[in-house]
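Is this the right way to post structure tokens for a design question? Let me know if I should format differently. Anyway, here goes:
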């Protein structure tokens, strides 16, 4: 890349790094980069970051269902520098998706070279300063397999045209351009589908300061090269990573990898060595000219745009259509190229679901006849209809095994408003936390309340479970399906296939150490369901399809997940919690109401020994869960509180059907005292209808 095309970008990088480090001034004072390198020299990897970042890093090692090796884990902590043999195979596979870019103008005149890489079927990512406009991309070419073979000879390359008319998204601030690649090669033996793609994940935590990074690139248009692990990550900012570049020449648009070959940044700029007059220097010590190439500059550090920032931005900007849908699925890990596939063995139309832990088949539910044998009417016109169990020997409903796939979710949390106190037209404020609550502070310093689409929650720091959730519920048809033409099923909203099961994910606004990861629930014993506190159906409503879809995804954060046994959680097993949820929904088919819910967290809850992402862990399992319903009753409010116990000894509960729900109701003041961690709003306490029941 010619220097004249990158001067502005490099100057911005240097200003950004200097502002972040704020080095001293004066003769002989160290530069910002020298200070960052000195800190890296004095501190081992894994010692820069908080425990939460280390745990997030460990979680990311399992991306795509990969198994963490001992050496891989120890490298992230700085205890060992050895790599596994499969490190080389993974690197070769990652390199397949990297292409040399021949930058040309409309007349075919060469303007330089760059690097780009595929991040989804038919979509290539590079820098904005490589392709500032769609016209710049349209005149240029992408060359794959531009590398040496085992004997040192050049391999046959395959050239593709770029087609920005089909897809082009760019952002000057984050310095990226994403462009469609022609499906058919202009020349060469390869096919576009042969090269796979590199996942650009919107998730945080893929690398920590002090860890080695690797860059695969085409410096100065030469054959593909690799700066392998001899480059340390020096600092992390909101949008950028800064890394030393003792062996990494500048290569605009190259992918930057962590030690597990996950893309952590889009390389875009650097900090050059300068002479006393402030002029950039080439490696031979002479001043840089505009016609020189960036690969010949004596870079002392490089900068890349964080992969998570690029991913979240392109997902927000991408237009509708097949390419946009493929981009979304690839970034979220819902489709992946076949691992280690040789050229020519895949058809271009194939899509591969991301490999992951395969959930064990759920126990077959008992078929239930439609005959009712009892009714219990409680306030809010909730009519409880209890089904008659089928006779012994009735056929079970078999369920096919499913894959764990992360459902679509919006990683940009800025617009989340959470629970609305004015939702019912009468003020119903959130519960207050008591001094004993020990709520988890957010990592962004914004208190302890965590807002999602239509609900808000607070997490217990030590128990790693919600203290309470508060949800606004609207089951009116207009709110449940606001835009005709869309499918509003669970799978459609989550972007899942027929055989897929939702994979739950961490909330980056809270420390990972204060959240129970999905792995705890997917233990070998399969002891617990991942029980929603805020049920998906309760908050899947909105003014448009996008809002409904966002709410659907928000319910699959592990912050909304609690360990419940199947016989308590699932209504198909006559589970109390699930059946109560069903009855509330049945009566609320055209109504709006608010729900408060949470586990009853007491000190003598039984301990379960399991495994989370950091290893063995002991977790106290709640014996009971509470729920409060608040609805309008004319110009007043009506509120009802329930406390339901789950059987942790696997001994079946027995109930009198005539009084099934009434026996679990409590006065709200009594329920509040039992919970001990929250205080219900005065308006809700005043509206308690327990005495009437």
């Amino acid at each position: 890349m010619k220097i004249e095309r990158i001067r502005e970008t490099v100057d911005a990088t240097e200003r950004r790094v200097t502002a972040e480090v704020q080095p001293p001034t004066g003769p002989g004072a160290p530069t910002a980069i020298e200070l960052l390198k000195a800190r890296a020299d004095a501190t081992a990897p894994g010692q820069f970051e908080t425990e939460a970042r280390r745990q997030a890093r460990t979680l990311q090692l399992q991306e795509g269902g990969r198994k963490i090796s001992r050496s891989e884990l120890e490298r992230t902590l700085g205890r060992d520098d050895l790599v596994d043999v499969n490190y080389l195979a993974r690197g070769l596979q990652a390199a397949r998706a990297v292409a040399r870019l021949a930058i040309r103008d409309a007349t075919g005149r060469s303007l330089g070279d760059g690097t780009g890489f595929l991040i989804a079927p038919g979509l290539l990512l590079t820098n904005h300063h490589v392709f500032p406009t769609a016209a710049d991309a349209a005149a240029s070419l992408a060359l794959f397999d531009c590398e040496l073979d085992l004997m040192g000879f050049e391999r046959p390359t395959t050239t593709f045209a770029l087609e920005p008319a089909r897809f082009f998204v760019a952002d000057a601030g984050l310095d990226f351009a994403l462009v469609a690649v022609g499906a058919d090669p202009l020349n060469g033996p390869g096919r576009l589908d042969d090269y796979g793609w590199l996942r650009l994940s919107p998730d945080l935590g893929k690398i920590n300061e002090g860890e080695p990074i690797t860059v695969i690139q085409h410096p100065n248009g030469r054959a593909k090269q690799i700066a392998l692990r001899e480059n340390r990550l020096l600092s992390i900012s909101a949008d950028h990573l800064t890394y030393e570049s003792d062996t990494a020449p500048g290569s605009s648009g190259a992918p930057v990898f962590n030690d597990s070959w996950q893309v952590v940044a889009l390389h875009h700029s650097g900090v050059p060595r300068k002479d006393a007059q402030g002029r950039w220097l080439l490696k031979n010590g002479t001043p840089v000219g505009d016609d020189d190439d960036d690969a010949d500059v004596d870079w002392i550090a490089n900068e890349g745009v964080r992969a998570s920032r690029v991913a979240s931005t392109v997902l927000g900007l991408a237009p509708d259509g097949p390419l946009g849908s493929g981009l979304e699925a690839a970034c979220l890990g819902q489709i992946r190229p076949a691992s280690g596939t040789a050229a020519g063995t895949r058809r271009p139309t194939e899509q591969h679901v991301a490999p992951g832990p395969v959930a064990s088949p759920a126990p077959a539910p008992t078929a239930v006849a439609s005959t009712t044998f009892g009714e219990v009417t409680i306030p809010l016109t909730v009519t409880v209809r209890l089904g008659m169990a089928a006779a012994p020997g009735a056929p079970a409903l078999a369920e096919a095994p499913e894959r764990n796939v992360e459902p679509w979710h919006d990683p940009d949390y800025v617009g989340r408003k959470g629970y609305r106190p004015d939702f019912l037209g009468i003020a119903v404020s959130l519960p207050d936390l008591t001094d004993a609550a020990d709520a988890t502070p957010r990592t962004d310093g914004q208190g302890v309340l965590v807002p999602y689409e239509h609900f808000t929650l607070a997490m217990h720091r030590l128990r790693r479970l919600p203290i309470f959730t508060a949800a606004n519920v609207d089951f009116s048809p207009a709110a449940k399906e606001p835009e005709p033409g869309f499918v509003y099923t669970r799978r459609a909203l989550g972007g899942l296939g027929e055989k897929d099961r939702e994979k739950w994910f961490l909330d980056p606004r809270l420390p990972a150490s204060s959240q129970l990861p999905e792995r705890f629930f997917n233990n070998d014993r399969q002891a617990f369901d991942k029980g929603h506190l805020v049920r998906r159906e309760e908050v899947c409503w909105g003014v448009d399809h996008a809002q409904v879809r966002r709410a659907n995804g928000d319910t699959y954060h592990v912050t909304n997940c609690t360990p419940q046994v199947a016989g308590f959680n699932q209504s198909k097993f006559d589970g109390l919690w699930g059946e109560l949820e069903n009855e509330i929904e049945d009566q609320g088919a055209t109504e709006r109401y608010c729900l408060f819910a949470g586990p009853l967290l007491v000190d003598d809850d039984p301990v379960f020994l399991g495994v989370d992402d950091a290893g063995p862990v002991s977790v106290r399992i709640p014996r009971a869960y509470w729920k409060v319903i608040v609805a309008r009753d004319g110009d007043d409010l009506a509120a009802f509180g329930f406390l339901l116990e789950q059987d942790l000894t696997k001994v079946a509960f027995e109930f009198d059907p005539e009084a099934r729900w009434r026996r679990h109701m409590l006065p709200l003041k009594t329920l509040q005292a039992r919970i001990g961690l929250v205080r219900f709003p005065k308006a809700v306490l005043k509206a308690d209808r327990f005495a009437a029941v």
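Format looks fine. Someone answered above. Worth noting: The two ends are 77 Å apart (CA to CA). The first strand starts at residue 98 and ends at 104.
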